[in-house]
């Protein structure tokens, strides 16, 4: 039964994998791009009340959000960049502000905002 389940799941895995590859830009598409890498938590907050929530302890979250980043897209493009690479967006273990201590790959890191905030960032970035 376990082997049958694996056989049934394998085509689904490959179908999903191929669908992601098909949507990706080609290497040639990226040759003319200038990418700005952003550590979301450290880049920009969405309001001044949220500034420096880490209180100088840089091992904690400092308040950067998807909305804060969205508000700075013109600043980034003004420096000549036409693509952004943001830190991982998934839920983290403890104070994993950098995004590389994933605890749930299906949930958004609520320190950065909501799924709607992320979708708004993506939509706005694609429109620029």
Describe the protein in words.
- The strands form two sheets. A two-stranded parallel sheet has the order 1-2. Strands 3-4 form a two-stranded antiparallel ribbon.
- The longest helix has 22 residues, at 2-23.
- It is of the alpha+beta class and 128 residues long.
- It is globular and about 50 Å long.
- It has a single domain (26-127), classed as Transcription Regulator spoIIAA, CATH 3.30.750.
- It has helices at 2-23, 27-31, 40-43, 66-71, 73-78, 115-127; strands at 35-38, 83-86, 90-92, 102-108.
- Residues 1-24 form the signal peptide.
- It comes from Bigelowiella natans.
The side-by-side strand order for the widest beta sheet comes to 1-2
CATH class: Alpha Beta
Task: Provide the number of structural domains.
Answer: 1
SSE pattern, N- to C-terminal: HHEHHHEEEH
CATH topology description: Transcription Regulator spoIIAA
Strand portion: 5-15%
Alpha-carbon Rg, integer: 18 Å
Distance between the termini: 51 Å
Helix fraction? 40-55%
Number of strands: 4
The 3D shape can be described as globular
Helix/strand-derived class?
alpha+beta
Mean pLDDT: 83
Question: Spans of 5+ residues with little confidence (pLDDT < 50)?
Answer: none
Signal peptide: 1-24
GO biological process, one term: carbohydrate metabolic process
Protein name: Glycosyl hydrolase family 13 catalytic domain-containing protein
Organism: Bigelowiella natans (Pedinomonas minutissima)
